[in-house]
């Protein structure tokens, strides 16, 4: 693929100003897409990102849009704004994620609702509103994790939401394929971002992951961005309803 294969396309990335979402925004922009990066609260980080040399180096435009998708009124305002500034959306990537890291029996209904609101309901509600704007050849991509199918310590809430996300996206894939829209997920394993610091045993978790990964390296956010960009290409048009694992071989059965 040559540079600029997404030229003329518009991409929306939830959680697109930090961590994995930031890397995805940059790679899509690097490939020529106009990117709208949604963030919920951290205006300072979003403004710094938008003005950064990394964004300038892409040669494309990245617009940062503040939109708390878990608040009904703010959600409506965000949808109205998106319909105005992006009447055509070629790519939607759901990278926004949060959650409470506790043992399953310590999770309250409030903990679960918070996690599912961000990780699952936000993108479902957004796609219900915006799917008419996605044309033939469009792409919808969700970022999941191994915790969606495996038991990980302190990951019950997030893992349950990711498992639900994977199931929901498979249904999207079948329902939207006749419209020429390809829906997939990317599961990158552990990526060193600020999110890792939220775990109470983050350092031990990192070392365990490194020890169990055949390549001896963790996946980088930039590599995830590259894979997402590939899934947005014409070459990936027949990849539909799949969860693409990018974890250095850690999940290979042994």
Descriptive notes:
The protein has about 250 residues and is α/β, with parallel strands linked by helices. It has a single domain (about 10-245), classed as 3-Layer(aba) Sandwich (Rossmann fold). The chain contains 8 helices and 7 strands. The protein has helices at about 20-30, 45-50, 55-60, 70-85, 110-130, 155-175, 200-210, 220-230, and strands at about 10-15, 35-40, 60-65, 90-95, 140-145, 180-185, 245. Strands 3-2-1-4-5-6-7 form a 7-stranded parallel sheet, sandwiched between helices. Helix 1 crosses helix 8 and helix 5 runs parallel beside helix 6 (about 155-175).
What fraction strand?
5-15%
- Count of individual helical segments: 8
Computed structural class: alpha/beta
Could you name the CATH class?
Alpha Beta
What is the helix/strand order? EHEHHEHEHEHEHHE
Q: Tell me the CATH superfamily.
A: NAD(P)-binding Rossmann-like Domain
Mean pLDDT: 94
What is the count of distinct domains? 1
Number of strands: 7
Strands side by side in the biggest sheet: 3-2-1-4-5-6-7
Query: Termini separation (Å)?
Result: 34 Å
What would the principal axes of the Cα set say about the shape?
globular
Characterize the largest beta sheet: strand count, sense, and whether it forms a barrel.
Answer: 7 strands, parallel
- Helical content stands at 40-55%
Using only C-alpha atoms, the radius of gyration works out to 17 Å
């Amino acid at each position: 693929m040559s540079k600029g294969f997404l030229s003329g396309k518009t991409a929306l990335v939830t959680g697109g100003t930090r961590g994995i979402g930031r890397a995805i925004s940059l790679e899509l922009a690097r490939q020529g897409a106009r990117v709208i990066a949604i963030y919920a609260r951290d205006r300072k980080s979003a403004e710094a990102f938008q003005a950064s040399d990394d964004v300038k180096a892409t040669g494309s435009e990245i617009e940062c849009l503040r939109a708390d998708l878990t608040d009904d009124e703010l959600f409506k305002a965000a949808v109205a704004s998106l319909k105005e500034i992006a009447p055509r959306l070629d790519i939607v990537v759901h990278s926004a994620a949060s959650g409470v890291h506790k043992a399953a029996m310590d999770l309250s209904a409030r903990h679960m609702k918070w996690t599912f609101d961000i990780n699952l309901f936000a993108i479902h509600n957004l796609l219900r509103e915006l799917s008419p704007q996605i044309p033939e050849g469009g792409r919808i991509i969700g970022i999941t994790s191994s915790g969606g199918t495996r038991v990980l310590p302190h990951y019950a809430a997030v893992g349950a939401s990711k498992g639900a996300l994977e199931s929901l996206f498979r249904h999207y894939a079948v329902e939207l394929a006749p419209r020429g829209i390809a829906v997939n997920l990317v599961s990158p394993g552990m990526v060193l971002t600020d999110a890792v610091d939220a775990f109470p045993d983050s350092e031990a978790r990192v070392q365990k992951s490194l020890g169990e990964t055949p390549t001896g390296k963790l996946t980088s956010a930039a590599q995830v961005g590259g894979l997402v960009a590939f899934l947005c290409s014409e070459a990936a048009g027949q990849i539909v309803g799949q969860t693409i694992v990018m974890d250095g071989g850690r999940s290979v059965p042994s």
